[in-house]
Design brief:
- The complex is a heterodimer.
- Chain A is an alpha/beta fold.
- Chain A has a single domain (7-243), classed as 3-Layer(aba) Sandwich (Rossmann fold), CATH 3.40.50.880.
- Chain A is built from 9 helices and 12 strands.
- In chain A, the strands form 3 sheets. Chain A has a 4-stranded mixed beta sheet with strand order 1-2-12-11. A 4-stranded mixed beta sheet of chain A has the order 4-3-5-8. In chain A, strands 7-6-9-10 form a 4-stranded antiparallel beta sheet.
- In chain A, strand 11 (184-186) and strand 12 form a beta hairpin.
- Chain B has 2 domains: 58-88 and 109-294, 3-Layer(aba) Sandwich (UDP-N-acetylmuramoyl-L-alanine:D-glutamate ligase), CATH 3.40.1190; 302-440, Mur ligase, C-terminal domain (Protein-Tyrosine Phosphatase, Chain A, Alpha-Beta Complex), CATH 3.90.190.
- Chain B has helices at residues 2-27, 36-44, 48-53, 69-82, 97-105, 128-132, 150-153, 156-168, 183-190, 266-281, 286-294, 321-333, 362-367, 378-386, 406-416, 429-440, and strands spanning 59-64, 87-89, 118-123, 139-142, 175-178, 195-196, 228-234, 237-241, 302-308, 311-316, 338-342, 369-374, 398-402, 422-427.
- The two termini of chain B are 40 Å apart.
- The chains are: A alpha/beta, B alpha/beta.
- Chain A binds chain B through residues 2-8, 11-12, 15, 18-21, 31, 50-53, 55-56, 96-97, 116, 120, 122-123, 151, 153, 155, 195-197, 200-201, 231-232, 234-235, 238, and chain B through 147, 150-151, 154-158, 213, 216, 219, 224, 226, 351-358, 378-380, 382-384, 386-387, 389-390, 392.
- Bound molecules: zinc ion.
- Zinc ion is lined by residues 220, 222-223, 225, 242, 244-245, 247 of chain B.
């Protein structure tokens, strides 16, 4: 699934690896992908979709394929799931039109679209990462409090159960516009409404995903060579300034 | 009786107020007055659009779709004017309700009499159902439905469903001209009770080598199964069929090989074919149609060419992944090593700029030369270009220049353009208006 520029996350991860001399293979986990394919990936990326496509994806993601995905996430394979994808990893998603779609239930949350006439949650998003382990590890990478900057564009609202939120909203609406939470983290999988170019604008998060994936793959701690992220820094500063958010 | 008189008075008042506003806006040099008069007049006479449109002598032509509305309208308008018809048209891209009303007001005298044969109205895809509830067009052109400005309204599927419901209630003699190469519109056309004429391409030699990344509706609109494409012309437009339910593209009313096109780029071939079909339905003869195509000049911002300080400048509106992929394709086909990209995120552009990650900017970077970036989201665009570079060392035949200030960016871009070459400018909608203002010194409101 890729709408709203979610491909940006894939491009970002792919380039940051290849710039450092790693060989990367991007495998689309679409209808033609098998359970064996899923069980071989080192890092998962999931994107947004229209309601109808959500349903099609869920119809396909059943049986051994669903088990393979569940197994990867339970074993700690890092992943980033934006917008539609996390809705399908929760208990269920109720679209604007049509019937409730049952999800994989990996994340303890439910998502509901309040109807075709409800306001969409749209706009720039800034969050401070609060998920304990992730926040600590990101701080180790950036040497500062980790703030994520993104853009949300979703109709559905998500209510968390016993799962840790990804962060606290400083700007924007987040999971539901009510409790100030945004996203969720389960093992090394991140669910977020901040879609598309989340990783290019937050390169330290991209590097955390890569580092976690490589450490698991080679069974030893891997540290990544630094890259020139001047442009990302400038893009972040410009947005913080515009939103008048004090971060970093 | 009394009511009728009151209504007439109201119409007259609405019209005269609107005309005053138009003159004021022009006298004060606030812009071209393409929205405000309609807004004010509609407050005075709420059924204004309905009342005015019922006076159009020969009929109204509505043009809807994500990309190509302005170019197609202008081409059709030129074809009709050539035959001596008087045509009203909301030409400045002001395609929301007030823009439509303003366009009709411009051709209305102080007594509320409208004096045109045809009205061509560009209609925002989300406003179409609302417009159809207050006026009855003779022809509806459905150009395409791409993911665009979704942050304003929602999603392609919902829009399509609303279109179908709205069009189905119109009189049976309404002529609907949908793009057969767009699966959603092919499906729409095949399920309408009205007269439907499809336009599209039958030129397999124009297929893309690979399916671009911006594609968003490749599932069968009938049964949800993945569609099979024999070939793709651009984005999700192509020759397709559904292996599950047998749904396939509508039967074309024109052989696209027999017709030339306006301007550059395959997307303009679609625009040309749509206008031809409509003109034929309105009785314009083939010689006039061909002649108009041969002599057509671009609308502002749509492959428009200007001469600025001795350099040739071509502006190619790039407001969504599909449009921008096509403008990049067009830039590659003509020589030119200098390109200015301007990315804004205001309401008319869509506030969500993540679509740039769905554009195949890699192709632009591969070509090398000089890329200048500017706009409200200059660093986001620069970041996209940085991530378009393949190898682990920066591309040496590519020069990337970042200029926050648009005037500065334009000046630099002009300087960087060698004599005798063309500077290509790829702006989003509001950026295009700003670029034009800088280049020509005039504003469009
Ligand atoms: Zn089908």
């Amino acid at each position: 699934m890729s709408t709203y520029g979610d491909r940006g996350n894939v491009i970002c991860l792919e380039r940051r690896l290849s710039w450092r001399g790693y060989e990367v293979k991007v495998m689309p986990l679409d209808q033609s992908a098998t359970a064996t394919d899923i069980s071989q990936v080192d890092l998962l990326v999931g994107g947004g979709a229209q309601d109808r496509q959500q349903e099609i994806v869920m119809r396909d993601l059943k049986g051994s394929k669903a088990e393979a995905l569940r197994d990867r996430i339970e074993r700690g394979t890092p992943g980033i799931f934006t917008c539609g994808a996390p809705q399908l990893l929760g208990h269920y998603y109720e679209p604007a039109l049509g019937v409730r779609i049952t999800g994989l239930g990996l994340f303890d949350f439910v998502s509901v679209h309040p109807g075709p006439n409800a306001r969409r949650c749209i706009g720039n998003l800034v969050i401070r990462v609060t998920a304990t382990t992730l926040a600590q590890e990101l701080e180790a990478i950036t040497d500062s409090t980790p703030y994520l900057i993104g853009f949300e564009n979703h109709g559905g609202r998500t209510k968390l159960g016993q799962v840790e939120p990804l962060g606290q909203v400083l700007q924007g609406l987040g999971n539901n516009g009510e409790d100030g939470t945004e996203g969720a983290v389960y093992r090394n999988a991140i669910a977020t409404y901040s879609h598309g170019p989340l990783l290019p604008k937050n390169p330290f998060l991209a590097d955390w995903l890569l580092q976690t994936a490589l450490t698991q793959k080679y069974q030893k701690p891997i540290s990544l060579a630094p890259l020139d992220d001047t442009l990302a820094t400038q893009a972040r500063e410009a947005m913080f300034k515009r939103l008048r958010v004090r971060a970093g | 009786m009394k009511n009728q008189l009151l209504n007439k008075l109201r119409l007259g008042l609405a019209v005269s107020v609107a005309k005053t506003v138009t003159s004021l806006v022009r006298i004060l040099r606030l812009g071209a007055a393409s929205v405000l008069p309609g807004e004010i007049a509609s407050r005075i006479q709420p059924q204004l659009l309905e009342k005015l449109s019922s006076q159009v002598v020969q009929g109204m032509i509505l043009i809807a779709g994500t990309n190509g509305k302005t170019t197609t309208s202008l081409l059709l308008r030129t074809m009709l004017e050539r035959k001596g018809y008087r045509v009203a048209h909301n030409a400045t891209g002001a395609n929301l309700l007030n823009g439509l009303t303003t366009a009709l007001l411009e051709n209305t005298n102080l007594f509320g009499h409208l004096t045109v044969d045809y009205a061509i109205l560009e209609v925002d895809e989300n406003v179409l159902p609302k417009v159809l509830s207050s006026l009855q067009p003779k022809i509806i052109l459905c150009l395409n439905l791409f993911r665009d400005q979704l942050d304003r309204y929602g999603e392609v599927d919902i829009i399509n469903q609303r279109w179908r419901e709205a069009i189905a209630t119109l009189p049976l003699e309404t002529i609907v001209i949908p793009n057969a190469d767009d699966p959603t519109l092919s499906y729409l056309g095949q399920h309408l009770p009205q007269q439907v004429l499809f336009f599209g391409l039958n030129e397999p030699e124009q297929y893309l080598d690979e399916i671009p990344h911006a594609v968003d509706s490749i599932y069968c609109p009938n049964c949800g199964h993945a569609l099979i494409y024999q070939g793709v012309y651009l984005s999700h437009l192509g020759d397709f069929h559904c292996p599950s339910c047998g749904f396939s593209k509508g039967k074309l009313a024109l052989d696209s090989c027999n017709w030339p096109q306006i301007l550059i780029g395959l997307y303009n071939k679609y625009n040309t074919l749509a206008a031809i079909l409509a003109a034929q339905q309105l009785g314009v003869d083939e010689a006039s149609i061909r002649d108009t195509i041969a002599n057509f000049h671009a609308a502002f911002g749509r492959a428009e060419e200007l001469k600025v300080s001795g350099k040739q400048v071509r502006i190619l509106l790039s407001k969504n992944p599909v449009g921008m992929n096509e403008t990049i394709r067009a830039v590659q086909q003509v020589s030119g090593q200098t390109t200015l990209l301007v990315l804004n995120d205001r309401i008319p552009d869509g506030t969500d700029v993540s679509w740039i990650w769905d554009v195949d900017t890699e192709k632009l970077v591969e070509q090398g030369g000089t890329l200048i970036v500017s706009g409200d989201r200059v660093y986001d665009m620069a970041l996209r270009l940085r991530y378009s570079q393949n190898g682990n060392c920066p591309n040496n035949h590519l020069q990337l220049i970042i200029k926050e200030d648009l005037r500065d960016a334009i000046a630099t871009a002009l300087e960087q353009t060698p004599d005798g070459e063309t500077l290509h400018i790829l702006p989003t909608y509001s950026a295009m208006l700003e670029v034009r203002e800088v280049l020509t010194g005039r504003k469009i409101l």
